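Human:
I keep going back and forth on a fold encoding question. Comparing notes only helps if you start from a blank page. Show me how you would write down a chain together with its backbone fold. Write it directly below this note and I will take it from there.

Assistant:
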Amino acid sequence: MLNLKKYLIALIIILNLFITLPAFAGGLSSNWGEVHIDNLEVGKSYDLNDFLNTTFKIMNNFDKVILLNISIVKPELSELKPGYLVIEDTSWVQVKNEVIIPAQSQGVVPINISIPDSDEYKGKKYQFWIWTRTSGQAVGVGLKSRILISIVN
C-alpha cells in the first residue's frame, strides 16, 4: 500500500510538470512616465490634460477588458527628486478612481489639480505619484507616473 501511495504521488508530480495552464500575458503602459508641470499659480485649478497639451493615456496590453484603480500617492523621502517636496495634500489632485479599458485599447484618464490660495506655497516644488493598477485579477499589474510641479512666486 505504501508503494502505491508513493507511485501515485510521483505520477501526480510528473503530470503537473507536463500539463500547463494557458499563460496570462499582458501589461499596462502609459505616456506619462515622468511629467514636469511648471508655472502653476496658487488659487487656481488646472485640467492637466488640457494644460499640458497631452492627455494621460493608459494602454491595456491584455487580451481582455481590465478595471483599473487609480490613486494619488505621496512619495517616500527616498523617492524625491532633488529640490522637490512631498505634496502637502493629495486632495490637491483629483483623478477618476476607476477606469475600464477594453482589451488592446487605451483610455484617457482625467486629472485635475487645484493649488490652494496661500502664499506659503509660492515658489515651491512638489512631487506625487499617479498609481495605476489592475483590479480583480489573480496577479495585479501596476505602474506609477512621477509628477513634478512647481508653483510660481
Notes: Residues 20-24 have pLDDT under 50 and may be disordered. Residues 2-18 form the longest helix (17 residues). The chain has one domain: 28-151.
